[in-house]
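Input chain follows. Return structure tokens only.
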Amino acid sequence: MKNKKLNMKLLDGKYGVCRLSTDEAVPSWAFKGEFFSITKTEDELSIVCLEENISEKIKCERNWRILKVEGPLDFSLVGILSKISGLMAKNDISIFAISTYETDYILIKDENIKKAIEVLNEDYYNVII
């Protein structure tokens, strides 16, 4: 990854990170939109989706924006998330990361997205808005 610019794209919309109990079925609203992520563990059912689809009754952390690392990324690449999270940590920006088979998605609170994009553009990233 050294000296190679990675492209990142800011996805449209604001997202919510929701917590449901493990015995609940995945609700239909979770599947609406271009991006959603559903993870179930023995402790919780976690859903990331457009916040406009989420009821006020749902336990949810709102106002996240998503930066997509343009892929596909080869499994042999090392340190992509580490580098991004390190840059954000040095600038007091909290992240929530989601990885898929082909790429990584970095969730950043809306109030920090502008600063995050500036930090990334100053480093080895090209953020497309």
